[in-house]
Amino acid sequence: MGNTLGGRGDTGWATEEPKTNTKGRGGTSSVPDLLKMYCQRLAVPLARTLVQRSAIRAESVLVSRSLSTSAVRADIDSAAKYIGAGAATVGVAGSGAGIGNVFGALVIGYARNPSLKQQLFSYAILGFALSEAMGLFCLTMGFMILFAL
């Protein structure tokens, strides 16, 4: 009547199991049934902790990756700001060269025809104002790139 290998109700035990009385259930259970019940109860929390640990590891990997990429991205953004501001500052140097050309042409024109002094001077002031306006515009754009973005 006991469970043996190859017998009816094969559980893998080679000897006959003693019946034990489980308190509070009002019935009897065999040792393999109790062992199976406790193993199942232990296996479920163990499986849950393994899944939770792998989820925590994956989450920590994502956090560390996002931190490292955000630092690189911030460096790239600041480098782009400085490059853009530097390129805008080149326009200020161009303005200085333009002002030099305007007054150089004034001197040459005055040397060729001194009677056009007043008209040449008004054109020189107009050229100076336009060149200076472009220089100030470039400087303003450089500051906007640095401090507004």
UniProtKB/TrEMBL annotation:
UniProt-listed Gene3D superfamilies: F1F0 ATP synthase subunit C
Pfam family, one: ATP-synt_C
Annotated GO MF terms: lipid binding; proton transmembrane transporter activity
Family the UniProt entry places it in: Belongs to the ATPase C chain family.
Entry keyword annotation includes Nucleus: no
Subcellular location: Mitochondrion membrane
Main localization, broad class: mitochondrion
Membrane topology term: Multi-pass membrane protein
PANTHER family found in the cross-reference section: ATP SYNTHASE LIPID-BINDING PROTEIN, MITOCHONDRIAL, ATPASE PROTEIN 9
Biased composition (Gly residues): 1-10
Boundaries of every V-ATPase proteolipid subunit C-like domain copy: 83-145
Keyword field contains Zinc-finger: no
GO BP: any one term: proton motive force-driven ATP synthesis
Any GO CC annotation of this UniProt entry: proton-transporting ATP synthase complex
Organism: Steinernema hermaphroditum
UniProt-recorded name of the protein: ATPase protein 9
Keywords assigned by UniProt, alphabetized: CF(0), Hydrogen ion transport, Ion transport, Lipid-binding, Membrane, Mitochondrion, Transmembrane, Transmembrane helix, Transport
Record region (Disordered): 1-28
Transmembrane segments: 82-108, 120-148
